[in-house]
Amino acid sequence: MWVFFAAFVIGLAASYAFAPKPQSQPSPTMDDIQVPTAEVGKDIPVLFGCREMRGPNVLWYGDLRTIPIKSEGGKK
Hints:
By secondary structure, the protein is an all-alpha fold. It has one helix spanning 2-17.
């Protein structure tokens, strides 16, 4: 039984030692992030079917409103 335990520990140490090390990723810059914009003169693409748009030009975005939360917190 001790032989199996020793083999397990040795195998675990070997797999940890030979595992690939993760590469450090550079921080994203503002050019890497694509968010919706509202620019005058920017083209509005016409899409047919299901497509993914990165950084679209937003003309209108719903009726945004805030609703206050009216509840008492905690038990008394």
